[in-house]
Known about the structure:
- The protein is an alpha/beta fold and about 270 residues long.
- It has helices at about 5-35, 50-55, 85-90, 110-120, 135-145, 175-195, 205-210, 265-274, and strands spanning about 70-75, 95-100, 105, 120-130, 160, 200-205, 225, 245-250, 260.
- The model is unreliable at about 1-10 and about 20-35 (pLDDT under 50).
Amino acid sequence: MPVHRSGTTGRKRLAAAGTLLAVLALLLVAPSSAVAEPKPERGSAHMGMGVIAHDGQGGPPGDTRAIQTEGVDVSSHQGNVDWAALWNSGVKWAYVKATEGTYYKNTYFTQQYNGSYNIGMIRGSYHFATPDTATGAAQADYFVNNGGGWSRDGKTLPGALDIEWNPYGAACYGKSQSAMVTWIRDFLNRYKYRTGRDAVIYTATSWWTQCTGNYGGFGSTNPLWIARYNTTPGTLPAGWSYYTMWQYTSSGPIVGDHNKFNGAYDRLQALANG
């Protein structure tokens, strides 16, 4: 007659059930530990904030075999800027964020825009585009009305359109490639109508390729400001055979975002004068 070890069998079943429950608990808990990065607050966007995430970051710029002029770009992210220290370090030009969309004005704009000018720099302002919130023409007007204008004083650069990854949602702002090109064109046309100058386009080649289909129609009119944190600017977007400015790092001295103007100081003056 067989012997039934009901106590041992019960304990084994309980142990197996306990193991199963533990595994299920881990499966349920594990995903919650991978908390998504919170979206930044509207208005906090600044040049290049998506470059490292999407394009990576290499070493410092190499020997370009050409004379270049050092510059910086700033936003409310930098707060009050030590312009004297930057000037003494060799920085000769600057771009200051003025606006974003039709809803945000840089709260440090006066200190940054006037401070760079007063120390002797040639400076300009830029607009962070949000093509999903208002038309290109409306954003150009908002930009010009809030610090994005231009004057022929020899120290003011044409305004720059910062068009790059959307920090608040879909990379291309929910627009098709053709719709994005139309939005950019509307901004540029309105800016030129208001100021008489062709705006600078700041972008990254990978974003431009993804979101405009690598459109090449602006290269003959609008100076290119390329973003790439590496030893060289790399392949440029279609339509441009050379860059005018290159944002090469987000971790430079005094102010993180440093740039090279592709020419000597007198060519920078020529751009300012139109």
